[in-house]
Design a protein that fits this description.
With about 180 residues, this protein is an alpha+beta fold. The protein has two domains: about 110 residues, Elongation Factor Tu (Ef-tu), domain 3, CATH 2.40.30; about 50 residues. A seven-stranded antiparallel beta sheet has the order 2-1-7-8-9-6-3. It has a two-stranded antiparallel ribbon with strand order 4-5. Strand 4 and strand 5 form a beta hairpin. It is elongated.
């Protein structure tokens, strides 16, 4: 089976590679030898394909790959190497294309794909969310009332500016003696 990306067969694929990475965090207790490993799951699998497109539809293939890269949406992917990995959808992470001399419409390509993992919908907590929202609204009501007093408070402080300025000048003069 030839690799297919978004329903388009990738011609003359010369190399396919995959990379899997497990995320582990090590926690070392202070003053103790050793540590604990926490399994944080795995990163999405990365698939790299390289090949050459030489048929008259090669430019069309390159343009399709560029369009899929720009849209950033998940596309279906089928290849023998990924059947055991259960990778159905991928994102095009990187695309490198070179026009090869010697024949017209000959392009060498390297496509890096990243496994698309469907985001998990957050749990709805219902009544808990409503209670938090009511508490927050109550706190904001009191805050808004306090902000109404800010302008008279600031203008009321103006009467203390001149006496405090005079006091500061006398203290500075006394300190210099």
């Amino acid at each position: 089976m030839r690799p297919m990306l978004a329903g388009t067969e990738l011609p003359q694929v010369q190399e396919i590679g995959t990379a899997d990475l497990r995320a582990l965090a090590e926690h070392k207790p202070p003053g103790k030898d050793g540590g604990l490993l926490q399994n944080l799951g795995r990163a999405p699998t990365t698939i790299t394909l390289s090949g050459v497109a030489t048929d008259p539809k090669a430019l069309e293939l390159v343009e399709t790959l560029k369009k899929d890269l720009r849209t950033g949406s998940a596309v279906p992917f089928v290849a023998d190497i990924t059947t055991d990995c259960a990778i159905d959808n991928v994102l095009i992470d990187d695309l490198q294309v070179r026009q090869v001399a010697g024949k017209p419409d000959r392009y060498a390509y390297v496509v890096t794909l990243r496994e698309y993992i469907e985001p998990v919908e957050p749990e709805s907590t219902g009544a808990l969310d409503e209670g938090i929202q009511d508490d927050a609204a109550g706190l904001l009501d009191g805050l808004v009332d306090g902000l109404d007093l800010a302008v008279p408070f600031a203008t009321g402080l103006e009467q203390f500016v001149q006496p405090l300025t005079d006091l500061l000048a006398r203290l500075t003069e006394a300190n210099q003696r």
